[in-house]
Amino acid sequence: MSNVLEQHKQQEVLALGRLGWTLRRIARATGVHRVTVGEYLRAAGIAVRGRGRPGEGPPKPTISGEVSTDSAPTKPAIPRAVSTEAGLARAPSASACEPYRELIDDALTHGRNAVAIYQDLVEDHGFTAKYASVRRFVPKLRGTTAPEARVVIATRPGEEGQVDYGHGTAAPDSFPSRWRTRGKPSAC
Protein backbone atom coordinates (compact mmCIF):
# COMPACT_ATOMS: atom_id res chain seq x y z
CA MET A 1 0.00 0.00 0.00
CA SER A 2 1.46 3.35 -0.95
CA ASN A 3 1.06 6.61 0.86
CA VAL A 4 -1.08 9.25 -0.80
CA LEU A 5 -0.68 12.94 -0.09
CA GLU A 6 -3.64 15.02 0.96
CA GLN A 7 -5.26 16.96 -1.84
CA HIS A 8 -4.02 20.39 -0.69
CA LYS A 9 -0.45 19.04 -0.38
CA GLN A 10 -0.65 17.59 -3.91
CA GLN A 11 -1.83 20.93 -5.29
CA GLU A 12 0.97 22.77 -3.47
CA VAL A 13 3.61 20.40 -4.87
CA LEU A 14 2.21 20.72 -8.41
CA ALA A 15 2.00 24.52 -8.19
CA LEU A 16 5.61 24.83 -7.07
CA GLY A 17 6.69 22.40 -9.79
CA ARG A 18 4.96 24.56 -12.41
CA LEU A 19 6.94 27.54 -11.11
CA GLY A 20 10.14 25.69 -11.94
CA TRP A 21 11.34 24.99 -8.42
CA THR A 22 13.87 22.19 -7.90
CA LEU A 23 12.84 18.97 -6.17
CA ARG A 24 14.92 19.79 -3.10
CA ARG A 25 13.42 23.25 -2.78
CA ILE A 26 9.87 21.91 -3.08
CA ALA A 27 10.66 19.18 -0.55
CA ARG A 28 12.06 21.73 1.89
CA ALA A 29 9.06 24.06 1.50
CA THR A 30 6.35 21.41 1.74
CA GLY A 31 7.90 18.81 4.02
CA VAL A 32 7.31 16.06 1.42
CA HIS A 33 10.25 13.83 0.47
CA ARG A 34 11.87 14.82 -2.83
CA VAL A 35 11.36 11.38 -4.35
CA THR A 36 7.62 11.67 -3.69
CA VAL A 37 7.65 15.20 -5.11
CA GLY A 38 9.31 13.91 -8.28
CA GLU A 39 6.74 11.12 -8.66
CA TYR A 40 3.80 13.52 -8.37
CA LEU A 41 5.35 15.97 -10.85
CA ARG A 42 6.09 13.25 -13.41
CA ALA A 43 2.57 11.82 -13.03
CA ALA A 44 1.12 15.27 -13.73
CA GLY A 45 3.37 15.72 -16.80
CA ILE A 46 5.34 18.59 -15.27
CA ALA A 47 9.01 18.78 -16.20
CA VAL A 48 11.13 17.82 -13.21
CA ARG A 49 13.96 20.22 -12.64
CA GLY A 50 16.92 18.71 -10.87
CA ARG A 51 20.12 20.29 -9.69
CA GLY A 52 22.15 22.31 -12.14
CA ARG A 53 21.90 25.54 -14.02
CA PRO A 54 18.42 27.01 -14.35
CA GLY A 55 18.79 27.62 -18.09
CA GLU A 56 19.17 23.93 -18.96
CA GLY A 57 15.46 23.13 -18.91
CA PRO A 58 12.90 23.89 -21.60
CA PRO A 59 12.25 27.61 -22.14
CA LYS A 60 9.39 29.18 -20.22
CA PRO A 61 6.66 30.87 -22.21
CA THR A 62 6.54 34.66 -22.20
CA ILE A 63 3.95 36.47 -20.14
CA SER A 64 1.96 37.69 -23.12
CA GLY A 65 2.25 34.35 -24.88
CA GLU A 66 3.97 35.73 -27.96
CA VAL A 67 7.56 36.44 -28.84
CA SER A 68 8.60 39.72 -30.42
CA THR A 69 10.86 39.43 -33.46
CA ASP A 70 11.02 43.19 -33.91
CA SER A 71 14.54 44.38 -34.70
CA ALA A 72 13.85 48.00 -33.73
CA PRO A 73 16.40 49.53 -31.38
CA THR A 74 15.42 49.43 -27.75
CA LYS A 75 15.82 52.07 -25.09
CA PRO A 76 19.11 51.99 -23.22
CA ALA A 77 19.04 50.43 -19.78
CA ILE A 78 20.35 53.65 -18.22
CA PRO A 79 18.74 56.65 -19.91
CA ARG A 80 20.98 59.30 -18.39
CA ALA A 81 24.59 59.81 -19.35
CA VAL A 82 27.36 58.55 -17.11
CA SER A 83 28.49 61.24 -14.72
CA THR A 84 32.13 62.27 -14.81
CA GLU A 85 31.91 64.28 -11.60
CA ALA A 86 34.19 63.44 -8.71
CA GLY A 87 31.26 62.29 -6.62
CA LEU A 88 32.71 58.87 -5.92
CA ALA A 89 35.31 58.60 -3.20
CA ARG A 90 37.21 55.88 -5.05
CA ALA A 91 37.32 54.24 -8.45
CA PRO A 92 35.37 50.97 -8.72
CA SER A 93 38.59 49.02 -9.24
CA ALA A 94 40.46 50.64 -6.33
CA SER A 95 40.45 48.88 -2.99
CA ALA A 96 38.50 50.28 -0.06
CA CYS A 97 41.69 49.65 1.95
CA GLU A 98 43.79 52.08 -0.09
CA PRO A 99 43.25 55.05 2.31
CA TYR A 100 44.45 52.82 5.15
CA ARG A 101 47.54 51.51 3.34
CA GLU A 102 50.04 52.90 5.87
CA LEU A 103 48.09 51.56 8.85
CA ILE A 104 47.79 48.11 7.28
CA ASP A 105 51.47 48.08 6.29
CA ASP A 106 52.47 49.04 9.84
CA ALA A 107 50.25 46.30 11.29
CA LEU A 108 51.81 43.74 8.94
CA THR A 109 55.30 44.68 10.08
CA HIS A 110 54.15 44.01 13.65
CA GLY A 111 53.01 40.50 12.67
CA ARG A 112 49.24 41.14 12.62
CA ASN A 113 47.08 38.97 10.36
CA ALA A 114 44.22 40.11 8.10
CA VAL A 115 41.48 39.36 10.65
CA ALA A 116 43.15 41.42 13.37
CA ILE A 117 43.84 44.26 10.93
CA TYR A 118 40.19 44.28 9.83
CA GLN A 119 38.98 44.37 13.44
CA ASP A 120 41.33 47.25 14.24
CA LEU A 121 40.19 49.22 11.19
CA VAL A 122 36.52 48.77 12.07
CA GLU A 123 36.88 49.60 15.76
CA ASP A 124 39.47 52.37 15.61
CA HIS A 125 38.96 53.99 12.20
CA GLY A 126 35.31 53.39 11.25
CA PHE A 127 36.13 51.11 8.31
CA THR A 128 32.85 50.30 6.53
CA ALA A 129 33.95 47.78 3.88
CA LYS A 130 33.84 44.02 4.36
CA TYR A 131 36.60 41.73 5.63
CA ALA A 132 37.06 40.32 2.12
CA SER A 133 38.52 43.61 0.92
CA VAL A 134 41.19 43.47 3.65
CA ARG A 135 41.81 39.80 2.88
CA ARG A 136 42.43 40.68 -0.78
CA PHE A 137 44.53 43.76 0.02
CA VAL A 138 46.95 42.20 2.53
CA PRO A 139 48.70 39.82 0.08
CA LYS A 140 49.32 42.75 -2.27
CA LEU A 141 51.21 44.56 0.48
CA ARG A 142 53.07 41.47 1.68
CA GLY A 143 54.22 40.56 -1.79
CA THR A 144 56.25 37.44 -2.21
CA THR A 145 58.51 36.80 0.75
CA ALA A 146 61.58 34.63 0.52
CA PRO A 147 61.30 31.44 2.55
CA GLU A 148 63.28 31.32 5.78
CA ALA A 149 66.70 29.71 5.62
CA ARG A 150 66.76 26.23 7.11
CA VAL A 151 69.67 24.00 7.97
CA VAL A 152 69.63 20.68 6.17
CA ILE A 153 71.79 17.96 7.68
CA ALA A 154 72.73 15.37 5.09
CA THR A 155 73.65 11.97 6.52
CA ARG A 156 73.84 8.51 5.09
CA PRO A 157 71.02 6.08 5.92
CA GLY A 158 71.45 4.54 9.35
CA GLU A 159 74.08 7.05 10.45
CA GLU A 160 71.73 8.99 12.74
CA GLY A 161 68.47 8.20 14.49
CA GLN A 162 65.99 9.67 16.89
CA VAL A 163 64.19 7.90 19.69
CA ASP A 164 61.33 9.24 21.74
CA TYR A 165 60.81 7.32 24.95
CA GLY A 166 57.44 8.91 25.63
CA HIS A 167 55.74 9.04 28.99
CA GLY A 168 54.47 6.15 31.04
CA THR A 169 53.00 5.60 34.47
CA ALA A 170 54.99 6.58 37.53
CA ALA A 171 56.19 3.60 39.57
CA PRO A 172 58.26 3.40 42.72
CA ASP A 173 61.90 2.60 42.18
CA SER A 174 63.90 0.21 44.32
CA PHE A 175 64.48 3.12 46.69
CA PRO A 176 61.24 4.36 48.32
CA SER A 177 62.13 8.03 47.82
CA ARG A 178 62.61 7.75 44.01
CA TRP A 179 60.04 7.33 41.28
CA ARG A 180 60.54 6.43 37.66
CA THR A 181 58.25 6.27 34.64
CA ARG A 182 57.43 3.01 32.96
CA GLY A 183 56.33 3.02 29.38
CA LYS A 184 57.09 1.70 25.97
CA PRO A 185 59.67 3.60 23.98
CA SER A 186 58.39 4.82 20.64
CA ALA A 187 60.56 5.53 17.62
CA CYS A 188 59.82 8.62 15.58
Helices and strands in order, then pairings?
Layout: H1 7-18, H2 23-30, H3 34-43, H4 101-109, H5 114-125, H6 131-142, E1 163-164, E2 169-172, E3 179-182, E4 186-187
Helix pairs in contact: 1-2, 2-3, 5-6
Let me know the largest β-sheet.
Answer: 2 strands, antiparallel
Give the beta-strand count: 4
Distance between the termini: 62 Å
The class by helix and strand makeup works out as mainly alpha
- Can you tell me the residue ranges where pLDDT is under 50 for at least 5 consecutive residues? none
Q: Name the quaternary structure.
A: single chain
The strands making up the biggest β-sheet line up spatially as 1-4
Q: Averaging pLDDT over every residue, what do you get?
A: 75
Amount of helix: 25-40%
- What is the H-and-E element order? HHHHHHEEEE
Gross morphology: flat
Strand content: 5-15%
Number of discrete helical segments = 6
Outline the structure in words.
- By secondary structure, the chain is mainly alpha-helical.
- The protein has a domain at 7-52.
- 34% of the residues lie in helices and 6% in strands.
- It has six helices and four strands.
- It has helices spanning 7-18, 23-30, 34-43, 101-109, 114-125, 131-142; strands spanning 163-164, 169-172, 179-182, 186-187.
- Strands 1-4 form a two-stranded antiparallel ribbon. A two-stranded antiparallel sheet has the order 2-3.
- The radius of gyration is 34 Å and the shape is flat.
- The two termini are 62 Å apart.
- The mean pLDDT is 75.
